[in-house]
Amino acid sequence: MFFASALVSLLLASVALGRPSIASRQNRRRSGPLIPSNGPAANLISNTTVSHVKYSQNWAGASLESPSGTYTSVKGTFTVPTPKARGSGSHAASAWVGIDGDTCASGIMQTGIDFTIDGSRASYDAWYEYYPAVSSDFTGFSVKAGDVITLVATKTSSTSGSVSITNETTGKSVHKTLTGSHKLCGKNAEWIVEDFEEGSSLVPFADFGTVTFTGAKATLASGGTVGPSGAQLLDIEQSSVLTSVSATSDSVTIRYV
Description:
One of its GO terms (biological process) is proteolysis. By secondary structure, the protein is mainly beta. 11% of the residues lie in helices and 49% in strands. It has a single domain (31-256), classed as Jelly Rolls.
């Protein structure tokens, strides 16, 4: 996207004054594929037979793999947390559901809620993304701490699908049909809290407390549904391990530690 110089100046000014405008945020914010960790915990696991957890720099949660068949949709409901900063400046995290990005990273279809804390002010953004394109916000969709949110991502072909977010607390919902040039394999279904990117680096990761996805299920192309109990568990390691994840037959709990 190209901007006139005057508009660029306005956007830069909005960033300097506080929370970025929608245009500048969308130009910079991106989710991405799982980035493996090379920290001590990851190295310890790689040298043992323990395989129930995998460490990542940016993803915490659960990722289902489909060795036979493909996933066509993924769904989960969670309560929006109140983020806390781990130091000075702005910190953020994002809760989302999506298809692909773990063992198949050519494309990812995902939707979720960002939560940002800057000083004492928390803000929330609803977004969608067909990676590798940058994310886009759902404008005019109100979210606050304590709201119950249902996320759905649906793959309709190898290069198309749709996403929806419903605020169960307010009764409002948004929907978007997506197309892209990068193939969706349908090999992964995920429930994730992410340390996302702005520009080319991860944002300072917020203490999000606990996020629990309930009613978590993925639909197979064959028509069956599966829960996350057999999923690959993912924890974020950035110098130290920052999360603790568990899963049941229909839920995924991600706790900041």
